[in-house]
Write a structure and sequence with these properties.
This protein is mainly alpha-helical. It has eight helices and no strands. Helices cover 77% and strands 0% of the residues.
């Protein structure tokens, strides 16, 4: 459906541009935007490679393991069934730890494994369990200690201080995660 909406918007934009006699301006805008997009992507790829390397160093140095030791007791409090199963809790801890450090690519396999482990514990295979829903919310609103993607985008677009986003990202993502957990716990009583 969204493809149709985009097609209609682009088609109507081109049609109006041609009807109003702005075909020359339209073609210049298209060529200019393609050029700037390619330059932006090349800059972004380099920065993302840098941050992935920094995060790999953090992973190899044991930072992720230290963070997971801190998270484990907190997650045992909020997950009901998964907290009783070491395999499920381990995958949840590793996913959230990787997401917190901006290791999105490394977090994905742990997230899939966590969902598989929680599905194994789930009594009703037709519906997601409360722990699965809570994990999905935590995964989507994960606390970001190092928002590497945003820092990279800001740097690639010429920001003079791309890292200034650190404190606002930590505060906003923490509030989002807390509100998400509270909402899930309230809704678990009714659904």
């Amino acid at each position: 459906m969204i493809n149709y909406i985009w097609f209609i918007m682009i088609f109507l934009g081109l049609l109006v541009g041609l009807i109003t006699g702005n075909g020359d301006g339209l073609s210049k805008a298209i060529v200019g935007s393609v050029d700037s997009t390619v330059q932006f992507m090349i800059g972004l790829v380099g920065l993302m490679c840098f941050w992935c390397g920094v995060m790999k160093v953090a992973e190899k140095s044991g930072l992720t393991k230290k963070l997971s030791k801190f998270l484990r007791p907190v997650l045992k409090l909020i997950f009901k069934d998964a907290a009783k199963d070491e395999k499920a809790l381990g995958a949840i801890v590793m996913n959230i730890t990787a997401n917190m450090l901006g290791l999105g690519n490394a977090a994905t396999p742990f997230g899939i494994k966590a969902m598989q482990e929680m599905d194994r514990l789930n009594k009703d295979k037709e519906k997601a369990s409360n722990d699965m829903a809570l994990f999905l919310v935590l995964n989507a609103a994960c606390i970001q200690l190092v928002p590497t993607t945003i820092i990279s985008i800001r740097a690639a677009t010429g920001s003079t201080n791309p890292g200034i986003i650190l404190l606002p990202a930590i505060v906003a993502s923490t509030i989002a995660a807390v509100v998400g957990v509270i909402s899930c716990k309230i809704l678990q009583k009714y659904f």
